[in-house]
Amino acid sequence: MSCFKQSALLPEYLLLSWVLTVLPNLSSRSVVLLYCVVLCCPVSCVVYPSCKCSSCSSLSEVLEELEAIPARYRGPGDFIAEQLSHIDQQGQSFTRSTFEQRTEQRTVSGGGTPIGGHSAKQVEIKGHGMLNNPGSRVPICEACKQQIRGAYVLATGLAWCPEHFVCAYRGCGRRLLECGFVEENGLKYCEGCFEAHIAPRCAKCSKPIISDCLNAMQKKWHPTCFTCAHCHKPFGNTAFYLENGLAYCEQDWNQLFTTKCVACKYPIEAGDRWVEALGNAFHSNCFNCTRCHSNLEGESFFAKNGQPYCKMHA
Questions:
Q1: Any idea where the LIM zinc-binding domain is (predicted)?
Q2: pLDDT tens sequence across 177-192
Q3: Which of these CATH numbers, 3.30.565.10, 2.60.120.1440, 1.10.20.10, 2.10.110.10, describes 126-198?
Q4: Distance between CA atoms of residues 83 and 192, nearest Å
Q5: 3-class secondary structure, 51
Q6: Could you give the CA distance from residue 275 to residue 254 in angstroms, rounded to a whole number?
Q7: Do domains 126-198 and 258-309 have the same CATH topology?
Q8: Which helix (H) or strand (E) holds 259?
Q9: pLDDT tens profile 225-281
Q10: Which CATH architecture has domain 258-309?
Q11: Which residues of 104-133 are buried (b: 16+ CB within 10 A; e: fewer)?
Q12: Residue 259's pLDDT is what?
C-alpha cells in the first residue's frame, strides 16, 4: 500500500504520539487507521472529507481492507475510530479532558463494612484530671476557694489548683494528676488509698470491692462470692431463699426445707393447696382413697394401716 511509503512531518508524528498516549488501548486495526489519517492525508483532506486526492484514494483502499477484518478482532479503539470518521457528520469532538472526566466517573470508592459483633458492660470507677491553660473565665479552686490565675486541673466538671488536686485521704496527699483517682461520696482518692481504706469489704472473702458490687442481705459482696450455701453456685440475677440466715437457690431450698407430699414425694411449694392428715402432708389432689382413688379433701375418711379410705371401702 503506497500510503505507508510517504514520509511524515514532525508535527504529524507528534500528533499521532499524543493520540496514542491518550488512547493506549487502541486495537491494531484502529492504529492503522490513525496512521492513514495522520501520515497520508493532508490537513485539508481531513477537514474536507469530499477531497479526492491520491492520498485519500489510498486511504479508501485501506479502509476497504480494514472493513474486511472479522468483527471478533474489533477492540475498544475501533469505536473511537468510528467516531473520528464521523466527525464531519455528527460534529462530535473528544479532548483529553473529556476522557479524563469519563475515567473519573467510573472510579468508585468502596466504604468499609462495619464489623459487627457483642458488648460487655464495664464499670469504670477510675478518673483522670486534665491540665488546662487559663482562658477568659477565671476558675475557682474547689480546695482553697480562690481564683486560679495560672494553669489549673479540670476533673468531673470542677477546677483545682494543680498543687491542691491531691488524694483526700488524710496523711496521703498524693498528686492525683500523676496517678488518677477514684471518687467516693464526692471525694477523690488515689487508687491505693481507696483499696486500703475506703472500698467496701466483701462479706465472704473480706477483700476490697473495687469493681461491681452486689448488695444483698444488708451486706456487700463480689458477684462471684454471693453463692448458694448448698451447691455454691453464684446466684447472678436469679432469686434466692433465706433459711437460718443462709441463702439457697430455689432448687436446693425446695429439696432441703420444704414439706413434701407423702403421696407423690414432691415438695409442697408456696401457694399449693395441701392437706395435713394422719401425721403427714398431702397435696390436695393427692389425698385420695387408697382403694378407689376418689378425692377425700373435705370428706370423712377412715384410716387403716396409716392409709386413708373412703366410707365405702373402709
A1: 200-259, 260-314
A2: 888 888 888 889 998 8
A3: 2.10.110.10
A4: 82
A5: coil
A6: 18
A7: yes
A8: none
A9: 999 999 999 998 888 999 888 999 988 988 888 888 988 888 887 788 889 888 888
A10: Ribbon (2.10)
A11: eeeeeeeeeeeeeeeeeeeeeeeeebeeee
A12: 85
pLDDT in tens, 97-107: 333 333 233 22
- What contacts 24+ positions apart, CB below 8 Å, involve 78-86? 78/27, 78/29, 78/30, 80/23, 80/26, 80/30, 81/26, 81/29, 81/30, 81/33, 81/34, 84/37, 85/33
Check if the beta carbon of residue 155 is closer than 8 Å to that of residue 127: yes
Cα separation, 176 vs 164, in Å, equals: 9
Dist CA 180 CA 175 (whole Å)? 9
Q: What CATH homologous superfamily does 214-255 map to?
A: Cysteine Rich Protein (2.10.110.10)
For 47-78, the pLDDT digits (tens) are: 444 555 555 555 556 556 555 555 444 554 55
Q: What is the C-alpha to C-alpha distance for residues 99 and 97, in angstroms, rounded to an integer?
A: 5
Angle, helices 28-35/10-22, rounded to nearest 10 degrees: 150
Closest CA relative to residue 88, chosen from 136, 46, 128: 46
Where are the alpha helices (H) located in the chain, listed in sequence order? 10-22, 28-35, 43-47, 54-67, 76-85, 87-90, 96-106, 176-179, 191-193, 250-257
